[in-house]
Design brief:
By secondary structure, the chain is mainly α. Helices cover 48% and strands 5% of the residues. The longest helix has 18 residues. This is Transglycosylase SLT domain-containing protein.
Length: 206
């Protein structure tokens, strides 16, 4: 009876190495001298020079997570950039200038804003009532027959103010033209406030 031939240890190791190398090549895996490094996600079992079995899938899996934190950081940076408020939006913008209509209503409202800014009392109704009585709302009105006219200083404008009174009670920020509606109202109200407490208290010639 012939006994079976038992391969030598060196031959067995060599055959195992060749089998591992062939399997790795077939799966597209690169084996380095110092160890195994997979170029694909294919799981291939191979033996290293010491005869231990190494899985290439675990090697690839260990390398993959390294890129994830960077990708997450990039996504967070893009999200922060998309939601950030532009610097220009944080700068206070100047308020738009208030506008007034070029009629009796607008003149009174503009004058009231100036009067209130200078702490001069007056109300819309008080001003309107006296304008209608004095000039019927005509900013170019002039009185050429009363005592002031006889004295050479006729009353002028919406609230029939004489030149000396207009100059004395002129309010800063308004025109020096006595026929200017806003300037005329504001100066007259300033005078009425000084003499009567407010234009609201005037019900006749003043």
């Amino acid at each position: 009876m012939q006994l079976p031939t038992i391969p030598k240890i060196g031959q067995l190791s060599k055959k195992r190495k060749i089998t591992a190398a062939g399997a790795a090549a077939a799966a597209g895996v690169v084996l380095t001298v110092t160890g195994l490094q997979a170029t694909s996600g294919t799981a291939v079992a191979a033996s290293d020079p010491t005869g231990h079995t190494v899985s290439t899938a675990s090697t690839a899996a260990q390398q993959a997570p390294a890129a994830a934190p960077k990708a997450d950081a990039n996504k967070q940076a893009e999200a922060a950039s998309a939601t950030s408020v532009p610097q220009s939006a944080l700068v206070a913008q100047p308020a738009a200038a208030k506008t007034y209509t070029n009629n009796l209503d607008g003149w009174i409202k503009q004058s009231l804003d100036i009067l209130h800014a200078h702490h001069i009392p007056a109300s819309y109704n008080g001003i309107y009532r006296n304008i209608i009585r004095e000039s019927s709302g005509n900013p170019q009105a002039i009185n050429l027959w009363d005592i002031n006219a006889k004295n050479g200083v006729p009353s002028k404008g919406l609230l029939q103010v004489i030149d000396p009174t207009f100059r004395a009670y002129h309010v800063a920020g308004t025109s020096w033209n006595i026929y200017d509606p806003v300037a005329n109202i504001t100066a007259a109200c300033n005078y009425a406030a000084a003499k009567y407490g407010s234009m609201d208290n005037v019900y006749s010639a003043y």
